[in-house]
Specification:
It is built from 16 helices and 31 strands. The chain has about 575 residues and is α+β, with helices and mostly antiparallel strands. The chain has three domains: about 210 residues, Bira Bifunctional Protein, Domain 2 (BirA Bifunctional Protein, domain 2, 2-Layer Sandwich), CATH 3.30.930; about 130 residues, YbaK protein (Alpha-Beta Complex); about 100 residues, Anticodon-binding domain (Rossmann fold), CATH 3.40.50. The chain is globular. The model has no long low-confidence stretch (mean pLDDT about 90). It binds one RNA strand of 77 nucleotides through strand 14, strand 16, helix 14 and helix 15.
RNA sequence: CGGGGCGUAGCGCAGCUCGGUAGCGCGCCUGCUUUGGGAGCAGGAUGUCGCAGGUUCAAAUCCUGUCGCCCCGACCA
């Protein structure tokens, strides 16, 4: 392609609205433009990258035995009502009515639609297993879209759904997808890690997320420094405390703590370590107000809490409710003498003696409280976030913490959807049986954006070759006949062998071309200049290293082919 | 949903406090020169100042409303 024939509006200046590297560079390199919050147009260059990622996904999905189909973006409410998700999905589901006043929504995911299809068309165990996927636009009306393609409202996703005769078959399907994902992200040139994950709104029994490791990631993951354990912190288990504090209980005392409410303030004021403090957090569930106890240096894991309580919504109680329930302003809630409110506690509390807690009285705390003697914990459970230094929940080692971008997620769904939607088939005995499902997503745009987060420098993007919009950026540095002729000849030679070349045929100065090329980030730049040509040489430069080879034009093709075949080219 | 901020030329911004002529840089157009890392000189074009209403002789500027966008928060008392 010639630059003059492509819409590549590069920006010299930083776009004001962009925060993360990938967002900034995608805008600057002329790959995306915003249409509305979280909604983007993919410009020709950006679309080429998207298509590259899609092509890799297609190849690997097909190789894993999945078959492609395409479902609609809009779907009728009745399907969502069947599974209960019309109500359960909340505001993220963008709803609208058609001219007949019938309810529809834009699909944020497609379990309902695919399950509806399969229940109609699959009757016999002979038709299973089946794995169908699509690459299609999704819409989720996110609370706060951000970071360009990282968290859009409209985005391209590959979603696959497997249907099996039984649990064992579903395991096989799941593993195939897991393996395919490993290949896909490896081919995309990403450094990533699969971690155990929570199943969230999709539901199901178990899942893994594929996390691209990056500081800007929105997810926190923990992994063991020995062994293979890795999990999203939402999900990571924490082992019960090894031993109980050896000290013997001291009498409960009430102490004045004027204006001292945060953990930092209380521990500083009383000169105690945060491990000796027990925080009392009041949570509002749809049913009730509940008190949750965690150690002063720990964080409540709300997902674990929701599961323990069997509720889907939970939020910290508003200050006025805290006051009404405890009789004290926020900051002084405590389990001692707390009436009419159930108390659950993180398991670490069990190992503590002589702790500091709020006294449900303004400017007052208790010291030397004891859970066995002074208050009634209804249940102890793992309710906190894992953190660096915790022992690995399986095997040896300690946990470390890293940030990740979730680019893929695989779920074992079990019979959740087949049951609510009655997707059944007849087994060999003629028994009606529920299909066992799995579902598997990949964020296509997010994958491209993560590649930028991991591969860039001050000048711009450095695409991994397999997903680069072009392999070679061809840069003639003058408009002279000799240079143009040499450029054209190189372009033809390379293009004829299937190498993708972006030919910067603009009448621009060398500096402008170099800067745009660095910004756009093709892995190689082929530079044809007057001086070099006079010596019969052109320059082949690696974007990543800046390393340049000067060679005669007739050696360029062989060189490029060698360079490109070193990498997993699609 | 709460808090904060911003909407002025294609992009980045100033002007608003204290009402009166709409400005700067980049980009764009023309010409000449220049030509291996975002050129120089000269000339030029471009604005419903987000939108609607109000105050005023007069509004980018003040007031009200509204829409859009961005940031932080919506989890640790």
């Amino acid at each position: 392609m010639r630059t003059s024939q492509m819409l590549i509006p590069t920006l010299r200046e930083e776009p004001g609205e962009a925060e993360t590297v990938s967002h900034r560079l995608l805008l600057r390199a002329g790959m995306i433009r915003k249409v509305a919050a979280g909604i983007y147009t993919y410009l020709p260059l950006g679309l080429r990258v998207i298509r590259k990622v899609e092509a890799i996904i297609r190849e690997e999905m097909n190789r894993a035995g999945a078959q492609e189909l395409l479902m609609p973006i809009a779907s009728p409410a009745e399907l969502w009502r069947e599974t209960g998700r019309w109500d359960f999905y909340g505001k993220e589901l963008l709803r609208f009515k058609d001219r007949h006043e019938r309810d529809f929504c834009l699909g944020p995911t497609h379990e309902e639609v695919i399950t509806d299809l399969i229940r109609r068309e699959v009757r016999s165990y002979r038709q299973l297993p089946l794995n169908c996927y699509q690459i299609q636009t999704k819409f989720r009306d996110e609370i706060r879209p951000r970071f360009g393609l990282m968290r859009g409202r409209e985005f391209i996703m590959k979603d696959a759904y497997s249907f099996d005769r039984d649990e064992a078959g579903a395991q096989v399907s799941y593993q195939k997808m897991y393996d395919a994902y490993q290949r896909i992200f490896t081919r995309c040139g990403l450094t990533f890690r699969a971690v155990e994950a929570d199943t969230g709104l999709i539901g199901g029994t178990s899942s893994h997320e594929f996390m691209v490791l990056a500081e800007t990631g929105e997810e926190t993951i923990v992994y063991a420094d020995e062994g293979a354990y890795a999990a999203n912190v939402e999900r990571a288990e924490v082992l019960p405390p090894a031993e109980t504090a050896a000290e013997s209980p001291r009498p409960l005392r009430k102490v004045p703590t004027p204006g001292v409410r945060t953990v930092e303030e209380v521990t500083a004021f009383l000169k105690i370590p945060p491990q000796q403090l027990v925080k009392t957090l009041l949570y509002q569930t749809p049913k009730e107000l509940i008190a949750v106890l965690v150690r002063g240096d720990h964080e409540v894991n709300e997902i674990k809490l929701k599961k323990l309580l069997g509720v889907v919504e939970i939020e910290l109680a508003a200050p006025d409710k805290v006051r009404a329930a405890t009789g004290a302003p926020v900051g002084f809630a405590g389990p001692v003498g707390l009436r009419g409110i159930r108390i659950v506690a993180d398991q670490s509390i069990k190992a503590l003696r002589n702790v500091v807690v709020g006294a449900n009285e303004a400017d007052t705390h208790y010291v030397d409280a004891d859970w066995e003697r002074d208050f009634a914990v209804e249940r102890f459970a793992d309710l906190r976030n894992a953190r660096a230094g915790d022992p690995s929940p399986v095997g040896q080692g300690q946990l470390r913490v890293a940030r990740g971008i979730e680019v893929g997620h695989v779920f074992m769904l079990g019979a959740k959807y087949s049951q609510s939607m009655k997707a059944t088939f007849l087994d060999p005995q003629g028994q009606e049986t529920l299909a066992v499902m799995g579902c598997y997503g990949i964020g296509v745009g997010r994958t491209a954006a993560s590649a930028i987060e991991q591969n860039h420098d001050a000048k711009g993007i450095i695409w991994p070759a397999p997903i680069a919009p072009f392999h070679i950026h061809l840069l003639p540095l003058s408009q002279s006949a000799a240079v143009t002729e040499a450029t054209r000849s190189l372009y033809d030679t390379l293009t004829q062998t299937g190498i993708e070349v972006l030919w910067d045929d603009r009448d621009e100065r060398a500096g402008v071309k170099f800067n745009d090329a660095d910004l756009i980030g093709a892995p190689y730049q082929l530079i044809v200049g007057e001086k070099g040509l006079a010596q019969g040489l052109v320059e082949l430069k690696q974007r990543k290293t800046g390393e340049a080879a000067r060679l005669p034009p007739n050696q360029v093709l062989a060189h490029v082919q060698a360079l490109l075949s070193n990498r997993p080219i699609s």
